Amino acid sequence: MIAVIIKHCRGAEVLYGACNGSDGFWTAGQREDPTQETSFVWKVMTSNSVDKEMSLNYTNWYDGEPNNLFPMESCLVPRPVFAYEWNDGSCTDQRCYVCELDL
Ligand SMILES: [Ca+2]
Q1: Whole-structure pTM value
Q2: Residue 64's Cα: distance from chain center in Å?
Q3: Spatial CA neighbour of 50 closest among 62, 34, 71
Q4: From the CA of 103, how far away is ligand 1's center (Å)?
Q5: CA of 97 to the centre of ligand 1 (A)
Q6: Distance from the alpha carbon of residue 27 to the mean position of ligand 1, in angstroms
């Protein structure tokens, strides 16, 4: 089970109802180096290690995002207040998360 990766806009709306009441949901999107203002990648993680990183070929950033407004906004979170366009948020914020299952 891995955190969700959003590869295109088709079908992404299915995710939006998954976390009603939460200020968005965590995905597998993270800064390539979370200690620096680097670009975002999808990180496939198992346990506590990164197995694979993939480029964001599709993006849906909200206007002005990612802005690293607070220090270390290193995690990608679609937010309902942004019509589920993407924000970089602090990875320590408590939010719902959506995972994928291999079937
Ligand atoms: Ca932000």
Answers
A1: 0.86
A2: 16
A3: 34
A4: 33
A5: 17
A6: 15
